[in-house]
Amino acid sequence: MNEPMREFDVEIPMGRIAGLRNDGDGPRVLALHGWLDNAASFIPLAQHLHGIDLVAIDQPGHGRSAHLPPGTDYSFVGAINAILDVADALGWETFALLGHSMGGGIGSLIAAACPDRIERLVAIEALGALAEAPENTVARMRDAVAAHRAMAGKQLRVFPDIATAVRARMHASRVPGSGLDEPLVRLLVERGVAQVEGGFVWSSDPRLTLPTMTRMTEAQVENLVTGIGCPAKVIFGEPAQAYLPDDLRRRRAALLPRGELVVMPGGHHLHMNQPAAVAAAIGDFFLQA
Q: Which CATH architecture has domain 6-153+214-287?
């Protein structure tokens, strides 16, 4: 029988990290959500995962967690130490990672960089990081700097009620393969807003929407994936997302020294839309010795 997830928080050097945990017995699993999502994205899946101590955090700048200090940037590489600080605060020397999208990418980096700490990795809809052609380096950096400087003084949109925020999130997600039904969007929105005078605003750091200053090349990403030595299971929805076409994701997955690829029908948030099927694909992976 699964335990319900409860609210918790820890203090790390960058500030407060909030999240949800089930206080379960068994292997320790740290769950990392996708971009502009939060810990609530794992609530549907958690109901189908048995025998694990599951902790899902709001990553820095998301949900109910602290934002990075002014003048700093969000990046996959920059997230590594924050995630390790959370594990330290939990008293976890070794643990497994469960990541969706951005969380799967960050989990990939941590698994490669910290082989002595990561026991197993499940990455959903991601493996490695988004790559950039070397010749686009300068243009990307210029665009990112301009966007960062232009953000100063911008005001957050105030929604009069939660329902309006839910509709806005659903409208923003109307791209192929990313749709979520209203009850699932509400899960994310209720955890992803802050109450202010006149209504609600997104609690996520607006800087998360800015372009990334730099990205790895595909050769660097491939080197990273080959460095993931722990057992790894990668789960992708079909059809593939445009930013990670099927031939590329299969090529990356084949580089895993101890990896397994699962492709199943579903959109980008398949762990929310089809939690039972995704849990079945994970199976007893986290329970294996």
A: 3-Layer(aba) Sandwich (3.40)
Hey, which residues does 196 pair with through a beta bridge? Answer: 199
Q: Check 41, 65, 75, 101 and give the catalytic one.
A: 101
User: Phi, psi (5° rounding) for residue 79?
Assistant: -80, -20
What is the residue-level pLDDT of the chain in tens, covering all 289 positions?
A: 566 899 999 999 999 999 999 999 999 999 999 999 999 999 999 999 999 999 999 999 999 999 999 989 999 999 999 999 999 999 999 999 999 999 999 999 999 999 999 999 999 999 999 999 999 999 999 999 999 999 987 899 999 999 999 999 998 865 444 579 999 999 999 999 999 999 999 999 999 999 999 999 999 999 999 999 999 999 999 999 999 999 999 999 999 999 999 999 999 999 999 999 999 999 999 999 8
Q: Would you call 101 a catalytic residue per the annotation? A: yes
Structure tokens at 222: 């491939």
Distance CA 67, CA 61 (A): 4
| Residue pair 140/213 in contact by the 8 Å Cβ criterion | yes
Q: What are phi and psi of 159, to 5 degrees?
A: -95, 135
Q: What does the domain layout of the chain look like in residue ranges?
A: 6-153+214-287
